[in-house]
Amino acid sequence: MVRFLIRRIIGGAIVVLVVTLAVFVLFGPVLRMQSDISPARLYAGKNPTPEQIQRVSELLGLDKPYYEQYLITMRRLVVGPSDEEKARLCPGSTPDECDAIVGRFGSSFAEQVSVDRLIWDAFPVTLSLTVLSAIIWLLISIPLGIFSAMRPRSLLDRSSTVFVLIGQSLPVYYLGLLALYFLAYEFEVFPPSGYVPISDPIGWLYHLILPATVLALQFAAIYVRITRSQMLDQMGEDYVRTARAKGASEKRTVVRHAFRNAMLPIVTMFGLDLGLLLGGAILIEVTFGLQGIGWLTVQAAKRLDVPTTAGIVLFSAIIIVIANIIVDLVNAALDPRIRLE
Amino acid sequence: MAPLLSVSGLHTTFRTDDGPVGAVDGVSLSVDAGKVLGVVGESGCGKSATSLSIMGLLPRTATVEGSIRLGDRELVGMPDDQLRALRGAEMAMIFQDPMTSLDPVIRVGAQLEEAVRIHRDVPKQEAREMAMKGLASVGIPSPEERLRSYPFEMSGGMRQRVMIAMALINRPRLLIADEPTTALDVTTQAQILDLIRDLRTEVDAAVLLITHDLGVVAEMCDEVAVMYAGRIVERASVDDLFARPQHPYTWGLLTSLPGRHRAGERLHQIPGTPPSLLNPPPGCRFAPRCDFVMDSCRADPAPALSTHDGTAVACHLDAATRAREGARAARDDAP
Ligand SMILES: Nc1ncnc2c1ncn2[C@@H]1O[C@H](COP(=O)(O)OP(=O)(O)OP(=O)(O)O)[C@@H](O)[C@H]1O
Ligand SMILES: [Mg+2]
Asked: What CATH number is associated with residue B195?
């Protein structure tokens, strides 16, 4: 088990390493050669003189060879910015002020602030949205999927099929706009936008419930489908018949035996979806004006804020790698065939 | 004394997209406590449908008509919760494929304990004790440790032993074994059959043993019912069946036993295939494959089971022909 865990962590670290390299190459040399975008010129402000650009290049270390730049980037990512870097990038600031400007992921081009700070400010929003949404979609889809599978072709099953079709074919921004129009503007049941930290739980829920539900509906559709099909598969298995032959009640057979087995692939999918969403639910965040990671991505891209964009990509990759490791652990905990082999 | 299990006029029909499939068509049989009744027949003749009808384990698409009596209770039409209370307690079942019949993610011990605790309100410790004794009784070494194993850590034979222990843990009065050894290798087969025989004596249960192997029948059973296309065509004591088989289908089964052909000779086969149960032929269902078919065989009504000298047979052939041909089929000694 420990060996299994260590193997997964090493594997994850390698993936992250590869991603850093890819991000570095894409946002450095490739951006420069393909689109003639020079970070130094972007950083230097409007209509810079060649001397200004040259100075910024030196300031950011962009005049150094690429391999050296990569090593510096990696060093900063792993152990944090060095004192020398801090002194160079924020001369005359107090250490606290400097921490806000220089971070592991670098500094934003668009604002006088570190990418770390931008991400950590945005992340709670995305995390809240994701978690609330996940709770909603699981609460809808797991029971619906199970009951549909228990009574295939029943009215409930057919209705849930319609729900799946609608949920999967309506784009989330369209559903979001509809919800906004009717529930926020026309009837003013919910606020149209904004985020309230969870320290005010009621306000938090009140502001998030609409976007989280809209996001959840789409996922619920997918999860109803997979729960139903997994349950149908499992209910046809021999061990389910054995449980019935023992005299187990329908509830016991379904919950303790069939669902226990059906949930294994669902858990995997759930973990990966969570990881993906924590990297930013762009459409929902933009539609509902939630300043989360997805929103930040759009802002950064619009403003050609290269370090922020690169930082978000890297951050999302790390989240996904962590999600994968957690999924593996949970699977091992749930499935002895994985754990003991 | 009334038989422990008595099935009469059982009709089991599956609703399918192509129409109703009459998997069991008027089956009657009975088993006494302490006896083993074998049910033999080709694949698809309705053996499993019969046993699942008795257990009440058929899918929702099936309808059951007729009468199934266990002791003095009628099972057909019994409310679900009452039937559930009988399943696993009064009647239990072992299935064909031990590899898939246990829940893959639950420890063997927990599965056995569950079988106890569904029916009896005993403390966990006591259920555990019973589970351990159960494993010991089916000859599983170090049962204490094995309680903690998962099914995938066991061989097929082991798993079938676990299934047997689980089926017998509440001392049922009826045990149905649906081809319990088909999926196992020959040595394991013999061990499992021995085990069932020993435990049957010990528990004094009635056993309904489903198989397509006449060798197993000869070794295990007191009586035999031969099924063909949803119907019983012959019912006799084992000795009578092998010594004086009455039905042409039984003759076919006997002469196609692997042990019966001589070296180098081709294995005898009954020509043709069983009829579709979707729209079976009128009259005797074996008529299209029968060497002795007469015009009357193809006309309704089908021959009814009638009893001569303790053997019930459903065939229009005259007694003299049956005696002659039966003797020919039984010429070689019973296996
Ligand atoms: N769930 C079902 N739906 C529709 N038809 C079914 C169903 N289960 C069984 N049947 C049909 O009923 C008939 C009898 O099947 P059954 O499983 O009882 O055969 P069997 O004698 O046990 O065969 P085998 O030796 O292969 O186990 C077959 O024709 C089969 O196709
Ligand atoms: Mg069968």
From this structure: 3.40.50.300
Ligand nearest to the CA of residue B42, numbered in listed order: 1
What is the β-pairing status of strands B5-16 and B19-31? antiparallel
pLDDT along chain A (341 residues), means of 10: 86 94 88 76 79 83 87 90 84 83 88 92 96 97 95 91 89 88 88 89 94 94 96 96 96 96 96 93 92 95 91 94 93 90 70
Q: Classify the C-alpha dihedral A152-A158-A163-A168 as positive or negative.
A: positive
Count Cα neighbours of A65 within 13 Å in the Cβ-side half-sphere: 2
Architecture of domain A117-340: Orthogonal Bundle (1.10)
Domain stop point among B221, B241, B273: B221
Can you read off the two tokens belonging to residue B31?
Answer: 């088993």
Domain boundaries, chain A: 2-99, 117-340
- Interface confidence, given as ipTM, is 0.91
* Residue from the list A247, A261, A336 with its beta carbon closest to the beta carbon of B88: A247
Ligand 1 within 6 A of CB of B21: yes
Pairing between β-strand B231-237 and β-strand B311-313 as defined by DSSP bridges: antiparallel
CA distance A101 to A193: 28
Q: Kindly list the residues from chain A whose CB atom is less than 8 angstroms away from the CB atom of residue B100.
A: 237-239
Task: Domain count for chain B, please give it.
Answer: 2
Same domain, B308 and B321: yes
Residues in A 253-292 with any Cβ partner in B closer than 8 A: 256-257, 260-261, 264
Cβ–ligand 1 contact at B59 (below 6 Å) = yes
